[in-house]
Amino acid sequence: MGGRSRTALFLVMLMTFAGFVSLAADADGSKNKETCSSDSTEDCGCKQSRDKDSKKKDADEVKEADDKPKSEFYEPREGDTPYKRTNQMVYVPGGTFTMGTDKPIFVADGEGPARQVKVDPYYMDKYEVSNAEFELFVNQTGYKTEAESFGNSFVMENYLSEEVKSEITQMVASAPWWLPVDGADWRHPEGKDSNIKDRMDHPVLHVSWNDAVAYCKWAGKRLPTEAEFEFACRGGRENRLFPWGNSVNPKGQHWMNIWQGEFPKENTGEDGYTMTAPVTEFPEQNKFGLKNIIGNVWEWTQDWWEIQHTPTFKDNPKGPLSGDDKVKKGGSFQCTIQYCYRYRCEARSQNTPDSSAHNLGFRCAASELPSYLKGSEKDEL
Ligand SMILES: *[C@@H]1O[C@H](CO)[C@@H](O)[C@H](O)[C@H]1NC(C)=O
Ligand SMILES: [Ca+2]
Ligand SMILES: [Ca+2]
């Protein structure tokens, strides 16, 4: 791919870092107005997609998958694959909740204002989609991800081998730790000399929004709306930072996979993981029984990105009708309080639908429980 689209991708990744700038600015009392997460997207190129032609091609592939009869979408049951299934869903009863906050940490992200939002009952994947589940999808459909089509994806420098690093010629001046790595994709999370052999139960990485949509359709599911994600995250609690309350480490325990140590130099891995954790790790984060809804990897949602919200009541909102970026939620193993303090239920960030990275995955939702999962709720791991 050419230099132009690479530049666009750098800028997309930079948006994740813009909030760090504004937090630092808030801390010393000054205001930071011009960030990529604000409405100044034209200035910084965030609206650009990484490759228009490839995007179209992949959209066609997704459409083909759509046209297949439903019976082909999902077949394997326990025993058909060597891996323990983690495709179970939990029931989320729905209701009216306070979405967003009147005490935003990143104003430019559109975390506010607090508004009353109703969501109908739905089902949510208990776990982030794992490498094993994604491989099952690829085995059945031959699906090729966008990172595989483009031939590269973004990885943080700390996780790359010297050899892979030595081959990289481009950098992002203001976020030099993010590098575009040739050959990085879901099977090669840190580039060509890496693999997922010992990480089949970890979340799939380097999947674009389009890839996530294709997977969820295959599974007879769909992506959650942002409202559904946030409702699931809050678990019936009002005005709390985390799914379980306000304490980062309840009872002195780690309940999520984030970054401990001084970013980006030192990652102590005090929570047990310097990178991704298995999707089954850490306690259920709230009464809905969800794991890693906060932390581990960022998760794509259905909605287009928008930062202006009205405080009026909304009934099952699905976000704007169009846009340039999709909303991602939950923060990742690369978030700390000094940097990317976005492992909070109201926090949000964005990427173009064709972009992918080493800290971004997804889980699916569904309005009706897919028939192949009926009776599986008791299949506890
Ligand atoms: C996908 O297919 C390969 C090759 O047949 C097999 O080894 C692997 O176990 C399959 N993966 C899953 C998740 O079933
Ligand atoms: Ca960690
Ligand atoms: Ca997550």
UniProtKB/TrEMBL annotation:
What residue range is the signal peptide? 1-29
What keywords sit in the KW lines? Signal
Every copy of the Sulfatase-modifying factor enzyme-like domain together lies at: 86-365
Show the Pfam families listed in the entry: FGE-sulfatase (PF03781)
The residue ranges flagged as biased composition, category Basic and acidic residues, are: 44-83
The UniProt entry, under InterPro entries, shows: CTDL_fold (IPR016187), Sulfatase_Mod_Factor_Kinase (IPR051043), SUMF_dom (IPR005532), SUMF_sf (IPR042095)
**Chain positions covered by the region annotation Disordered:** 28-87
Which protein family is it in? Belongs to the sulfatase-modifying factor family.
What name appears for this protein in its UniProt entry? Sulfatase-modifying factor enzyme-like domain-containing protein
Upper classification of the organism? Eukaryota, Metazoa, Spiralia, Lophotrochozoa, Mollusca
